[in-house]
Amino acid sequence: MRITDIREATASISSNIQNAYVNFSQMTVSVIAVESDVMRHGRPVIGYGFCSNGRYAQGGILRERLIPRLTAAGEGALLSDDGGNFDPRKIRDTMLANEKPGGHGDRAVAAGALDMAVWDLVAKIEERPLWRLLSERYNGGGHDERVMVYPGGGYYYPGKGLDRLQDEMRGYRDEGYKVVKMKIGAVPLAEDLGRIEAVAGLVGGNDVAVDANGRFDLETALAYGEAMAPFGLFWFEEPGDPLDFELNAELATRYSGALATGENLFSLQDARNLIRHGGMRPDRDWIQIDPALSYGLTEYLDIIQMIEGLGWSRRCLIPHGGHQLALALAAGLQLGGSESYPGVFQPFGGFADDTVIVDGWAEPGEHMGIGMEAKSAMFAEIQRLVG
Amino acid sequence: MRITDIREATASISSNIQNAYVNFSQMTVSVIAVESDVMRHGRPVIGYGFCSNGRYAQGGILRERLIPRLTAAGEGALLSDDGGNFDPRKIRDTMLANEKPGGHGDRAVAAGALDMAVWDLVAKIEERPLWRLLSERYNGGGHDERVMVYPGGGYYYPGKGLDRLQDEMRGYRDEGYKVVKMKIGAVPLAEDLGRIEAVAGLVGGNDVAVDANGRFDLETALAYGEAMAPFGLFWFEEPGDPLDFELNAELATRYSGALATGENLFSLQDARNLIRHGGMRPDRDWIQIDPALSYGLTEYLDIIQMIEGLGWSRRCLIPHGGHQLALALAAGLQLGGSESYPGVFQPFGGFADDTVIVDGWAEPGEHMGIGMEAKSAMFAEIQRLVG
Question: What is the pLDDT of residue A158?
Answer without folding.
Answer: 83
